[in-house]
């Protein structure tokens, strides 16, 4: 369930950060660049998995990357509400969030392969895939409800 909640958060920022980039720049090119930047770290998935397989404390990697993501989102929202968020900083946030999401996904996969009995892995992975698919598909909808004409509801 923690993974599902994390996936919802990832879905929210996947929509929110490009939207914020467009709001800052009024440029479709910048929106596309941010959306593209979000997907580039996925190319590192095979390397990340091999590296994490050699790390003993994957649980610490999972918790640490989740906490760092939360801190980045809080900082982003704070900077945006103070009207001092700049596009360059948003690019850095997008890159960091994408790498942390990849790290979290890879570490979770390694953690499951190490700690779930071989007989139960198919069931655990299937359940995880279903939850991930559901959250991947509903998260942008949730984000859409949280925005109103490109403005945060809390303003």
From TrEMBL:
It is found in: Cell membrane. Pfam families: MFS_1 (PF07690). GO terms for cellular component: plasma membrane. The chain crosses the membrane at residues 28-49, 61-82, 88-112, 124-147. Keywords: Cell membrane, Membrane, Transmembrane, Transmembrane helix. Coiled coil: none annotated. InterPro entries: MFS, MFS_trans_sf. The keyword rRNA processing does not apply. GO terms for molecular function: transmembrane transporter activity. The keyword Membrane applies. It comes from Sulfoacidibacillus ferrooxidans. It is a multi-pass membrane protein. This is Major facilitator superfamily (MFS) profile domain-containing protein.
């Amino acid at each position: 369930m923690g993974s599902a909640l994390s996936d919802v958060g990832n879905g929210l920022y996947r929509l929110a950060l490009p939207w914020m980039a467009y709001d800052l720049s009024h440029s479709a090119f910048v929106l596309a660049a941010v959306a593209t930047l979000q997907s580039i770290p996925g190319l590192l998935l095979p390397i990340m998995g091999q590296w994490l397989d050699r790390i003993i404390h994957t649980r610490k990697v999972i918790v640490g990357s989740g906490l760092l993501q939360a801190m980045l989102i809080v900082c982003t929202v704070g900077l945006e509400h103070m009207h001092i968020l700049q596009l360059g900083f948003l690019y850095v946030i997008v890159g960091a969030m994408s790498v942390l999401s990849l790290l979290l996904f890879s570490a979770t996969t390694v953690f499951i392969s190490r700690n779930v009995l071989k007989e139960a892995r198919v069931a655990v992975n299937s359940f995880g895939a279903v939850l991930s698919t559901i959250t991947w598909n509903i998260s942008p909808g949730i984000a859409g409800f949280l925005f109103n004409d490109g403005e945060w509801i809390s303003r």
